[in-house]
Amino acid sequence: MAQLSPYLTFNGNCRDAMDFYQACIGGELSVMRVADSAMKDQSPAEIQECVMHSRLEAGEIVFMASDTLGRGELIRGNGTTLCIIGRTKAEIQDLFAKLAEGGTISQPLIEAFFGTYGELTDKFGVNWMFQADPA
């Protein structure tokens, strides 16, 4: 079966964002700067320190990200949300608290008919949704 992994784009602060997500979620983070890639000689000096590609893998959570690399203006929209479905309420509470640091909580964690639920936008403008089954 194929795997779907979200890919995030940042405007020069990808490394900061991915370090933050690793601190919150844990896992293995790999980061390649433009300066460390085969494209370094063909790339302008102003993007050499930008992230060409990164990947964070923490158990079943896998996502990737990069900086815009001069591909135009980054416009954050409200059409994409990363959803973390936890195994326990405690797991969701911990991740919610960490990712909320410096961000905006739009729906504090509540007990809904389908389980624990909450939403926030982190300090990098990424939307997150959290859910844990009541069982």
Largest sheet geometry: 4 strands, mixed
Helices and strands: which structural class?
A: alpha/beta
**H/E order of the elements?**
EHEEEEHEEE
Backbone CA Rg = 16 Å
Number of helices: 2
Biggest sheet strand line-up = 1-4-3-2
Give unreliable regions as ranges. none
| Quantity of strands, as a count | 8
Mean pLDDT: 91
Helix coverage percent of residues?
A: 10-25%
Q: Terminal Cα separation, in Å?
A: 28 Å
Characterize this entry briefly:
The chain has 135 residues and is of the alpha/beta class.
What would you note in describing this structure?
This protein has 135 residues and is α/β, with parallel strands linked by helices. Helix content is 18%, strand content 39%. The chain is built from two helices and eight strands; from the N terminus they run βαββββαβββ. It has helices at 14-25, 89-100; strands at 7-10, 28-33, 51-58, 61-67, 81-86, 104-112, 115-121, 127-132. It has a four-stranded mixed β-sheet, with helices on one face. Strands 5-8-7-6 form a four-stranded mixed β-sheet, covered by helices on one side. α1 (14-25) runs antiparallel to α2 (89-100). The longest helix has 12 residues, at 14-25. The radius of gyration is 16 Å and the shape is elongated. The two termini are 28 Å apart.
Please render the helix and strand layout as text.
Layout: E1 7-10, H1 14-25, E2 28-33, E3 51-58, E4 61-67, E5 81-86, H2 89-100, E6 104-112, E7 115-121, E8 127-132
Parallel strand pairs: 1-4, 5-8
Antiparallel strand pairs: 2-3, 3-4, 6-7, 7-8
Helix pairs in contact: 1-2
